[in-house]
Every structure is written in structure tokens, then in C-alpha cells.
Amino acid sequence: MSTLEIKDLHVSIDTEQGEKEILKGVTLTIKTGETHAIMGPNGSGKSTLASTIAGHPRYNVTSGSITLDGEDVLEMSVDERAKAGLFLAMQYPVEVPGVTMTNFLRTAKTAIDGEAPKLRTWTKDVKEAMTKLKIDADFAQRNVNEGFSGGEKKRVEILQLELFKPKFAVLDETDSGLDVDALKVVSEGVNRAQAENEMGTLLITHYTRILRYIKPEFVHVFVDGKVAEEGGPELADRLEEEGYDRYLNVKA
Amino acid sequence: MSETTTHIPEEKARIGAPSIPGFTEEGEDLSPINDNGGSPLAGASTKAHSHGGGVGVPDSSRAGRPTSTNVDDFAKLTGREEDWRFTPLKRLKGLHTDELTGAAPKIELTGNDIAKLSVVAADDALNGVAHTPDDRVSANAWKYASETHVVTIPKNAEGAKATLRITGESLAAAAQHVIVVAEENSEATVVLDHVGSAVLAQNVEFDVQANARLTVISLQAWEDDAVHASSQQALVAAGASFKHIAVSFGGDLVRVNPSARFTGERAEIELYGLYFADAGQHLEHRLFVDHAVANCKSNVLYKGALQGKDAHTVWVGDVLIQKAAVGTDSYEANRNLVLTDGARADSVPNLEIETGLIDGAGHASTTGRFDDEHLFYLMARGIDEKTARRLVVRGFLNEIVQQIGDEALQERLTETIEEELAATSN
């Protein structure tokens, strides 16, 4: 079993008006096999947490720590974090010109595992995973995310999640822009990865509808860069009915 | 509008065709609009042009550009001319102004025994069959080239492979003239392998005769100090195919102008290019496909990568579909990948169409950045920075590398790309 531990994390970004603090002391512990939902209104810092865990250069950690089984994640480069078993399914996956999906998937798999996958089983694995996620076979020959629709990009993120088998996955608003059918397909992919690999999941979302398909054991509500409330699945149900107003009103 | 009615040609009026100028029952025909006595788009200028020596209206149509073997027919360059506006004349090392009396780069032929190399006098009848200079530097090279190297692919020859190793050994401004004759029904691959240091104005002509298939790879692998302006012109006869691949990565200033003209029907022209510009380098490619006859096909694709401060690439693609060229199928595209800040890619596709009775014509140009978000995405999947850059650039340029049939050459280019990329991370 592995543990991802975030302690009193403060994160800021550089803006034209100077440095701006976004995360103001976040503490979270996730174990493999667990699913945590992070919910909150826009601008509360949910995506900042996701990008900071993955190591996006835009975010400066001013204090606090992130550790994976005791290892200092903040000391690791972006690729080292991925190799250590962290995966970020991005909210806006970028198009990478000139690199086919096939080439990209194999290169990434090789980097993460430290050795090239066996060609025959790998090709079969990729095909199967694509079929399950209802991704057309000819996507393999297309450049990474190039010309993909929003929903296709999200499916391709989950495809990687299934193939790379991380210890912890951070899903950054994977549900946004998906219709109900796509949402089901994507959720099934996440649930498969969790069942097969004992994966720990940090599910970041604004809306509760994805929680019908992916069941969290823990729900954390982010408001203004901090965890405002924590609880079990019942907290999500309450949010569905009441929205975020009551947190915002308290603040006001 | 009673006056308009009187201008409808009788035939059209008779069959009741709509009175829209330029439209026939079969589609759009622009010639009635354009052919109004010395109009800039067609007519006199075009006709004069195809036999050389014509002076049209240079800026209105590619066909109107003056052509002459006499350097004095071209005005002195100011850098404001349409075809020189991107080129830093100061760095031409006198190719446009000086007497080009330096020693021309040495030429050696290797390959199989099918292709023959000979040297003829500068006034031999072979000169100028497929080439008439269309700028001052090219005309200057014409004036000063003291001899002409001629590679001949004999009639009906199959599988001819010829590499001309062109080695520059001095930085004195020089001129050179090379001719490749692909005789009827022959099949050949010719590599022009430019290495060493040179300040060179060069004319290369390709006479691609009926049903011949000629692939040319012009490789600019110069040392850092080289200056090279090369005007490469092809005549492509009926049923022939001509594939030209320009590969530029060496030299301080390289300007390669491939142009290809159809002289017979059912012929095909493919112009490909690959360039990789480093800090301070100027790599320019200006190409011209002249659809002068009917039922021919052309395809153009140039791809370039740029990195470092003041790396500058220029791509200008002129495709002209003349009035007579009905049934033409043509496409041109340029794609640039900017790897670092401080680099500049200029890309200008020009498509002139004088008849609407064509199968297809299109152009495209894109210039994209390899930016931090790409890098983050790939690294977030475990791929280290160096590999990530390599992956992107290699994938991007590979489309052109694949066009080169020769394995050894492909490998050499792949290695070169790796070396260029290794320089990026330093």
C-alpha cells in the first residue's frame, strides 16, 4: 500500500499584479485503493492542487510538503513524479504536433516502466483499452490530441491512465465537457483502473454528476484555497441539493 | 445595365447561359476577365516569359517576373524587391554585386555506373535548355560560371543512382553551373551533396524528358560560414515525374529556389523540403510550380524547425495555374515548428489560378511553437525533457525524411536532426 500525503501546502502564482497565493494551507492524505473527491466553486484552487502535484512550473510552492511513501515529491522533476507513480488526467490536454499516439504511448510506457513493453502484448493491450473506451482504432495513427474533440481528449487521458497503471491518479475536471454517454465510458475506465491496480484516486470536480459513476469514500470541499469541510459521500449529496452557496455566504 | 448585355458573347447568349463574366457551363474561366490586352495577370507577360527574355509586370504575377541570362537586365538589388525582401543582402558576401571569380566547389560523382558525368563549355548548347535566370544572383552566376558539369541519365536506364559531392574549399565568391539530363523513360535518383565552405551562386537545371522519373535531393550540409544561393529549375515533359527534395541545415545564409515547369501533359511534380535553422542562420526556400499545360499534378510540402536567437527561415511557395492548364491538380503546404524564443519563420504561399476548370488547388501554411505546455504534457507522462523534444521534432520532420528513398541518406539526416537537437539543450 502506498500513501500520498499533502501537508499544509501553500502555493502561489506570479501575476502581473505580483505574487498571488492560491492554496492557503491544504492537508490531505490518500491511500491506494481510496477515492477522494475534491469539490468546490470555481477559483477555489482545485486545479491548482492538481497541477502542483504534477509539478507544473507555473505554480510556486511557498511552504508545506507533498510526499509519496515518505519521498519528497516536490524535489522531483515532472517526469520523475510520473515515474514514481503519479498521474494527472488534465483538464485541457494539449495537442502535440508530429507525435503519433502509438509512438507517444510506447515512449511514455517505456519511460514509466524503465523498460520497453513487450511489443506483442503491448499492441494487444492498447487495442483492447481503446475498444473499451470506445476510441476509434485510427486514433493510434493520429498525432497526440491533434484535432480530437473535447470528449475524445478526455477518453485518451483515461486510456493512458489504464495503460500506465499509476499508484495515484489525479483527475482534473475530467467530467467537464462530456455528455452522459462519454461520462459513463470514462467513469468505467477509472473504475477499471482502480479495481485492477489498487489505484488511489483524487477526483476533482465542480459538479456532482460524475459521483454517480465514480463513488468516493471521502469528500473534501475547497473554498478559497482551503478545505472548508470534509466528510463521506453524504456530503456530496448535500452539495448536489444545496450547491456551494452556504460556504460562500459564510465568507461574505 | 443594358451595356452588359451587349458584351455577352453570342454563343452564351444563344444557349441562355447566365451573364456572369468568367463563368461557362463547365465552371469558372477567368481568362475573359484577365486577358484584356497586356493585363498583368496573363496574356503578353506570360507568353513572353515562357521563352525567356520577357519583361512583364513583376509584382502582379509570378509569370511576369523578368528572366534573362544577362545580369545587366536585372536592376541592382535594394532589398525591397518582392523576391529579396526577406534576404539580408549584407550577408550575401557579394554574390549579387561582385565578380564571381573564386574557385567553384569541387564536384565528384559517386554512385552506380549508369549516370555519366561530363564537363562542357559555358556556351555549350546544353546550357539554358531548362533554365533561364530569374533574379540577379542567378544571372550573375550565369555570367561567371566558366564551365558546366553535366550528369546524364541515359534513355531507358533503370535504377540510376548518382551523388554529386560538391565540396567548397574557399570563401571567395564563386559561380557554378550544373545540368542533370534525365533522358526519355529513364529512372534515377540524383543527390547534390553540398559540403565544406563556400560563397556560391549556383544554377542547376533539370531536363526531365518524356516519361522519365527523376528524384533529386539537394542537401545543403555546409559549414557554418557558407553562403549559397541556388536557382534550380526543371522542365518536366509529358508523362514524366520530377521529385525534388531540398534539405537545408548548414551554412550562414542559404537560399534555394527550386522551380519546375510542365511542358507536356500527364506529368507530375513533387517539391519537398526540410530545414533546420539554428541561432543566426538564414535559410530561405522560394519555389515555383508553373502549370502551363493541361492535366498535370503537383504537390509541395516543406517542413522546418527553428531554434535559437535570430534563426530565420523563409518559405515562399508560388504556384501558377495558367489558362491552358485545365485539369490541374495542385497542393502546396509549409509547416514550421518554432522550438525556442527569438526565432522567426516567414511563410508565404501564393496560388494564382487563371482557370477554374481544374481538379483541385489548395495551399496551407502553419507555424506552431513547441512550448512549455507540450513539454509539461509529455514530461507528466514520464518522458524526460530531451526525449520529449526529440520526439516532437523527429516526428514533425519525419514526413519529409520518409520521402527520401535512400536509406543511408535517411540515416544521415536523422543523425543530423539528433545533432541539431542536442545543440538545443546546451
Helix coverage percent of chain B: 10-25%
For the largest interface in this structure, which chains are involved and how many residues does each contribute?
A: A-B, 30 and 25 residues
Radius of gyration of CA atoms of chain A, rounded to a whole number: 18 Å
Rg of chain B (C-alpha, Å): 22 Å
Annotation field: number of helices of chain B: 8
Could you say how many structural domains of chain A there are in total?
Answer: 1
Class from helix and strand fractions of chain A: alpha/beta
Largest sheet of chain B: 16 strands, mixed
Strand content of chain B: 35-45%
Question: What's the CATH first level of chain A?
Answer: Alpha Beta
What would your notes on this structure say?
The complex is a heterodimer of chains A (252) and B (426). With 252 residues, chain A is α/β, with parallel strands linked by helices. Chain A has helices at residues 46-54, 78-84, 101-113, 119-132, 150-164, 180-197, 233-242, 245-251; strands spanning 3-15, 18-31, 35-39, 60-68, 71-72, 86-89, 168-172, 200-205, 218-223, 226-231. Chain A has one domain (3-251): Rossmann fold (3-Layer(aba) Sandwich). In chain A, the strands form two sheets. Chain A has a six-stranded mixed beta sheet, with helices on both faces. Chain A has a four-stranded antiparallel beta sheet with strand order 2-1-4-5, with helices on one face. In chain A, helix 4 packs across helix 5 and helix 5 packs parallel to helix 6 (180-197). Chain A starts with a strand and ends with a helix. With 426 residues, chain B is of the alpha/beta class. Chain B folds into two domains: 21-60, no CATH class; 68-368, no CATH class. Chain B is built from eight helices and 18 strands. In chain B, the strands form two sheets. Chain B has a 16-stranded mixed beta sheet that branches. Chain B has a two-stranded antiparallel sheet with strand order 1-2. In chain B, strand 1 (23-24) and strand 2 form a beta hairpin. In chain B, helix 7 (385-401) runs antiparallel to helix 8. The N and C termini of chain B lie far apart (70 Å). Chains A and B meet through helix 2 and helix 3 of A and helix 6 and helix 7 of B. Chain A: It comes from Glutamicibacter nicotianae. Chain A: One of its GO terms (molecular function) is ATP binding. Chain A: This is ABC transporter ATP-binding protein.
